[in-house]
Amino acid sequence: MRILIAAAGSRGDVAPYTGLGAALSRAGHEVALATTDTFAPLAREAGLEFRSLPSRPPGERGGAANKRELMRTAAAFVTDLGRGFADAVARGTDLLLLSATTAQLGWHLAEATGVPAIGAYLQPTAPTGDFPPVVTGARSLGPLGNRTAGRLALRMADRVYARAVAELRRDLGLPPLAPHRMRRRRERADWPVLHGFSTALVPRPSDWRPGLEIVGPWWPYDDPDRKLPTELEDFLAAGPRPVFIGFGSMAAGEGERLSEIAVRALRRAGLRGILQTGSAGLTADGDDVLTVGDLPHALLFPRVVAVVHHAGAGTTAAGLRAGVPAVPVPVTADQPFWAGRLAALGAATGPIPFPSLTAERLAGALDLIVRQQAYTRAASAAARHLAAEDGAGEAVKAVARLAG
Fold it and tell me: Mind listing the GO molecular function terms for this protein (predicted)?
């Protein structure tokens, strides 16, 4: 079967699909990943065909932007995506796997081409009374309030996609159809969505409709022969386990401030540290701190005592997989949600909102997390839970059922 996985956003929104795609390839499928050009190397390293989607994600900034500006930027982004999505599908596709960012476009392509589609989401987007929508943070509004807020969040997403959907349907020769009407069609049909995160973080809500399943995390593809750099191995061997500090694709332009905070906090807490450069541009020198570039979390995280990160879905899961406690510093989007989930598990300190991050607050959190073993025990328990989940395997089974 020729499978096209369509995903867009930051690295964390795309990388998990490389592992999923590799698993589908091993099962005998021809797999292509459609995403923006930045992530072509990730697709090719995993042995997947790469198909280009235009544009790039909205700005990955350090602070909260004006909501109206974010909606305008997001609308422009998905409109650009829509213009190139049809070309990617037309190059030969038997099944579409759609991320949360591409589903609202993919539904219309599926209608026009007759190609079946399955959702492959990294976040829970369906309204539930169990928790508020991921885009609004971690504070519960109660069952009724959570469901109401969840429906409102979907309507806001419909608005973001309105122009893109209108243009796409016109280009495909389809009659006009508002995004919310297509979404409701899919909901009434119990359109299947596989969610690639752990039930340790989000148990399946009892009020979800049929067709919504949580299968376990999809891990980014890593070359099995890849090793940590010699300089990093030497640093790890030279003293106690260090703290990892990194913000992934977040906080561009904040490198100088974040680096200073990180080093001051580490030294105040009496800890060694590894700073990952990331989009922020973290960097520091010294016997007690090392700066590294892009490295597989699966190789590095089991070697550290704690992780300080932006609480993106992928980094959150990677820390738990390694059984390592966290200090979450959420920046934007779904990150406060995952930070809250980590803290509720007992595997992390209370989140430190990015604008409130100081060396003093970070040092205090680090001191707490390395000296109170309850955090490590909770992270280790979560690691055992994740080890029993096979997200990619469950997705392969779901595709096999559809093919059969």
Answer: hexosyltransferase activity; UDP-glycosyltransferase activity
